[in-house]
Amino acid sequence: MITGGRAELGVDLDELRLLVGLSYRELARRTGCARSTLHDALTGRRFPKLDTVLAIAQACGGDPMGWRQRWVAACKRAQAPRTVPTMSRQSMSPS
What we know:
By secondary structure, the chain is mostly helical. About 65% of the residues lie in helices and about 0% in strands. The protein has 6 helices and no strands.
């Protein structure tokens, strides 16, 4: 499984869903979540709420505590400041 940031969390959850062979319809029935919510979460389109992650994990037989920790870690990574290299005007002008 991928161990990356927020979008990867959804991809990893989708891998779990596929591993146990659940359709979106069956996953929606087991979790009580709308199929559109599940699709957005599992494709990385939207970052899922913790309740959604835990419901998916439970429905797929995953470890809820492990998925909770992954969700928290993904949130922290998203809040970490990113350094963007900048170029000075002088270095961008032709010589």
